[in-house]
Amino acid sequence: MTRTVAEKRALFRQLHTESCFVLPNPWDVGSARFLETLGFKALATTSSGFAWSRGHSDGALAREQILAHLRELVAATDLPVNADFESGFATDPQGVAQSVRMAIDTGVAGLSIEDSTGDPDRPLYDIEFAVARLRAARAAIDQEGGETLLVGRAENFFQGRPDLDDTIARLKAYSEAGADCLYAPGIRTREQIAAVVAAVAPKPVNLLVGSTSELTLQDIAALGVRRLSVGGALARAAWGGFMRAARALEQGRFDGFADAASGVELNALFR
After folding, report:
1. Region 198-219 average pLDDT
2. Is the domain of 186 the same as that of 265?
3. Are 54 and 149 part of one and the same domain?
């Protein structure tokens, strides 16, 4: 099957009305195609994973590089792709709207806009200004047909501001500003997750699970989460294997290759 962009977007929206689904994060074409073979229903990009693959830190790539990456991944898979679109590659609402229109043109089925500033002294935008940025993103999507799903992200826990009340206030404001799905990366406990889900209901919530967790997927679904992503965790896992093997090799050992994928399997996968 070869889905059109419109079909991918419709499927992606439908997934958010059903039970909890896993949205894994590939960082290149090969990882995207492999994840598709496993039966996942949609994919999401990872700004960190892609940046590391280009030899940069997270957040250091230019908008043009991210847009090219989005086009490449959308073309590589028949699955809907949600874009980790960072802070919209602009400060002012007009700039965010321009960036969002460019992202829509790549064919992504959804995109997220963060409220982080990149300034360690003032890591989060004031809520009123963050809302104006989300409204601009919403208007840009609506002007392009409204099919692309908008995710509003409250970055409190990622930016050293683990204030659950402020996080919830931001998510509720982003929901009212037109976000279709809400996301607070960094929340981990049952109590935090349940509070966020209840605060923005009936809109869906994305949960990040980027490390080992006591919660199972069944637990997370029971808390009312509609989608689960892993951010850069798969890329970090790949880097972990590579770094262990490379360090062993530097010491004259080859045991780092013990768990290496088969070249025959990889060639068959990408044939």
Report:
1. 96
2. no
3. yes
Q: Are residues 212 and 251 in the same domain?
A: no
Number of domains in the chain: 2
DSSP symbols for 153-208: E--GGGGT---HHHHHHHHHHHHHTT-SEEE-TT--SHHHHHHHHHHHTTS-EEEE
Decide if pLDDT at 177 tops 80.
yes
Give whole-number Cα distances, 36 to 32, 160, 219, 254, 259, in Å: 6, 35, 25, 31, 22
pLDDT at 212: 86
Query: Which string of DSSP letters, residue by residue, matches 48-61?
Result: HHHHHHTT--TT-S
- Using a cut of 0.85, tell me whether the model's pTM lies above it: yes
Domain that holds residue 238: 233-271
What sign has the CA pseudo-torsion 114, 238, 39, 8? positive
Q: Among 83, 100, 175, which Cα is nearest to 137's?
A: 100
In DSSP terms, 150 is beta-bridged to: 111
Same domain, 157 and 248: no
Hey, is 4 helix, strand or coil? Answer: coil
CATH no. for residue 104?
3.20.20.60
Residues 267 and 196 in one domain: no
DSSP one-letter code for 1? -
Beta strands across the sheet bearing 227-229? 21-23, 227-229, 205-208, 181-183, 149-153, 110-114, 81-84, 43-44
Residue 149 φ/ψ, nearest 5 degrees: -80, 135
